[in-house]
Design a protein that fits this description.
It contains 8 helices and 7 strands, in the order αβαβαββαββααβαα. It has 193 residues and is α/β, with parallel strands linked by helices. It has a single domain, classed as Maf protein. Strands 1, 2, 3, 4, 5, 6 and 7 form a 7-stranded mixed sheet that branches.
Length: 193
Amino acid sequence: MLKSHLKSKHLILASGSPRRQELLKLLDVPFEIRLKSIEENYPETLKHHQISDFLARMKANAFDGEVQAHEILLTSDTIVWHHNQALGKPSDYDDAFKMLCQLSGQTHEVITSICLTSIDHQCVANATTRVTFKSLTEEEIHYYIKNFNPFDKAGAYGIQEWIGQIGITKIEGSYYNVMGLPMDILYDNLLKF
């Protein structure tokens, strides 16, 4: 259905994330990957989904003047929100360890914003999923970081990896959102776009 709706359009994914690429393939819509290197900085006054909305829009704005009439650009950003603080990608091993210790035995929110941009229109939407971790041992956290290198993931974990299988006790909301692309919201917004 979506494929025929977008037949005159060309979808561009501006993300190097293998998870986002894998999820977008599930929609059975042809797409191309275009990448730009962006400093993911945002004003400190922003909170919760305002951060991911801002970053998704900023990633799209990096393509100003480059999107053609038949193209739709998809950019996105994911953050982990815990104790009124955004956890992005860890800077190193110690940072990843600290983040996972913070999330252990707690419930946090994963927020992903998507931004769809055409030559004359832009829309931003977001999804929030609540994720609860069991109390993780330091040994489990070290094992995960050493074996899965979660340095490219907000909150220092991937739900689809070992730590998600053994450590997550409850999810409220979209599983795919936690992977980095809220598929239901993306589908609905592409249909409306």
